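User: I'm preparing a small set of examples for a lab meeting where we compare how different chains pack in three dimensions. I only have the primary sequence for this one, and I'd like the structure in token form so I can line it up with the others. Please keep the answer compact; I'll paste it straight into my notes.
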Amino acid sequence: MNRAMITAPSRAARFAMLVSSAVLAAAALAAPVAAAPVKRAAAPAARPAAAAALSTAILPVPLMPVVPAGQRQCSAKTASGLGTLTLKPSADAAHPAKGDYVLVNYIGYLAADGRVFDQNNAAAFPVEGVIPGFSEGLQLMAKGSTWRFCVPATLGYGAQGAGETIPANADLVFQVELVDYKTAADVEKMRAAAAAAQPGGDGQPAAPAQPAAPATTPKP
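Assistant: Understood. Below is the structure token output for the 220-residue chain.
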């Protein structure tokens, strides 16, 4: 949507506006007090909207929206046929590698009709642990960026589809935000640190505590 550009007035224009305001204010003070305005008749109240017809349709669980056609398109294409569109760029120049792990927010929907089939926040998984088109797209992203991937069926679930939500030979679209990513070595260090923080300090369950000795009965 094009927006009209509003330019700041020049110093002369601002001065002219101030002078005009002062003249109008002085004229208003000098004018005689006007009679009270005539009370206008109240506008007729708006008619209430007609009640919606009763529906017995059962909503699907979970309730998934339908994405408009304009958000099912990409502007570029890789050699493999993956469509891409950068929605929010990032100043970071580094990208995840095949062996890395990513943390993403994503939503997936069908290119044909926009029906959403999956969405998730703070999803963590290996780059190679998803369909080829998604994996390729992740390796193009920088941390903090948001992209749209248009995944052809050949880079998705192919002729077999996936369950009841993704039909055979379906082209898919994903909106993906790359929140963070780590190398496999980094992830292993994080796991080791988490295990060491558990009771026992070495990842092993702590030994059961010995029962406390009974308290001595105080003498009278």
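A couple of notes for your slides: The longest helix spans residues 11-30. Strands lie at 76-77, 83-88, 101-110, 116-126, 146-151, 172-182.

User: Perfect, thanks.
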